[in-house]
Amino acid sequence: MIPGPTLIIPCPSCGHPGEKRTFISGNTFGAELWSDGKQIAPMLPQFPWLVKCKKCGKFFHTDSKLAIRELKWDDQDRKEFDNIEFLDFPSFLEYFEALGTEEDEKYLRFLIFRSFNDYIRNKKEDQITEEMQILHEDNLKSLLYLLKESTEDDINLLITKIEINRELGRYDKCFEMLNKINDEKYENLKSRLMDEVIRKNTKVFRLY
């Protein structure tokens, strides 16, 4: 990965600044792909788009157009910005605060979906409370509702629906949808999902 400049982006509501990393180029060597569609690539990191201001608590998008400064590693005045914190991904619970303010509800609910699964990915399941589990399941149901009008001719969408239903424990629905996958290109993925449905596993799992 070749790092790009660090952007100084102020909160549009209160002006509190935050730093956002960027990169010029990267690759997917050593990447992990998980059943909820999340890819984790050390050489192609993800930086937050939706963030919560650490001062006023308002949510905003880290659009590069909002940046008031681009800092390069060799800028002589870089130390003047040392006290500015990096803009972070919101927590699982914080994402719910953004509902009603984020225009793209589907996008937000996918963030919530994968944020919950991060507890499993990062081996922090002991931090999942009963309340969080209920919120997670309610979010999955809402996400399915938002996807209901989408055509299942889209294989990626179909796989997403299978994964959501699997995490909700709706195994009969999973079998029904898995039988619609006939493309040999997806045979391995179909087999992996089928195995987890047979095992009645509701947790996200690593594909590779």
Tag the structure with descriptive keywords:
single chain, 208 residues, 9 strands, 2 domains, alpha+beta, two-stranded antiparallel ribbon, three-stranded antiparallel beta sheet
In a few lines, what is going on in this structure?
With 208 residues, this protein is an alpha+beta fold. The chain has six helices and nine strands. The protein has helices at residues 92-97, 105-121, 130-147, 155-167, 171-178, 187-198, and strands at residues 2-3, 6-10, 17-20, 23-25, 32-33, 39-40, 50-52, 59-61, 69-71.
Q: Can you tell me about this structure?
A:
There is one protein chain. The chain has 208 residues and is α+β, with helices and mostly antiparallel strands. It folds into 2 domains: 2-81, no CATH class; 92-198. The protein contains 6 helices and 9 strands, in the order E-E-E-E-E-E-E-E-E-H-H-H-H-H-H. It has helices spanning 92-97, 105-121, 130-147, 155-167, 171-178, 187-198; strands at residues 2-3, 6-10, 17-20, 23-25, 32-33, 39-40, 50-52, 59-61, 69-71. The strands form 4 sheets. The chain has a 3-stranded antiparallel sheet, with no helix packed on it. Strands 1-4 form a two-stranded antiparallel sheet. Strands 5-6 form a two-stranded antiparallel ribbon. A hairpin with a 5-residue loop joins strand 5 (32-33) and strand 6. 19% of the residues are buried. The mean pLDDT is 95.
